[in-house]
Write a structure and sequence with these properties.
The protein is mostly beta strands. It contains one helix and eight strands, in the order αββββββββ. The N and C termini lie far apart (56 Å).
Length: 140
């Protein structure tokens, strides 16, 4: 009986040793179509556009161009945003970056990734005050 327990422990100890470690940074360079919706302080804003990412290891850079609209109970404002990706990083399936007045966190799907979605926080969008919180998604 003792011998069977040792064999079982040895077998359990070897489980999972054949699996490869997760990559430290999935490849995300290229063009992405991005959309988001954020709300807060009586305002709702939606936006869609293009995101071009360049990756160097775990660091991200790039550009974005987007069109959107914000609405409150008394006003609606259309806007165009463009700028650079700042403070971008990829760690496994996690991605983080800043686009202008919005900070993004998300989870990459696929290897190589074809979809990413997550949360976004924006401050300073047209016709709004305070922070707006919401979700975003991008496809590749």
């Amino acid at each position: 009986m003792r011998r069977a327990g040792v064999v079982l422990l040895l077998a359990l100890g070897s489980c999972g040793s054949d699996s490869a470690p997760a990559p430290s940074a999935l490849p995300v360079s290229g063009s992405w179509k991005v959309s988001q919706v954020v709300q807060g302080g009586g305002a709702t804003c939606g936006e869609g556009g293009a995101l071009a990412l360049t990756q160097s290891g775990a660091s991200l850079a790039g550009t974005f161009n987007a069109r959107g609209a914000c609405e409150t109970s008394s006003i609606a404002v259309d806007f165009v945003r463009s700028g650079n990706v700042e403070a971008g990083s990829v760690d496994g399936t996690a991605i983080h970056f800043t686009l202008g007045v919005c900070q993004y966190s998300g989870t990459l799907v696929g290897n190589p990734p074809t979809l990413v979605s997550g949360s976004v926080t924006c401050t300073g969008l047209p016709a709004t005050s305070g922070a707006l919180l919401g979700s975003w998604e991008a496809s590749h």
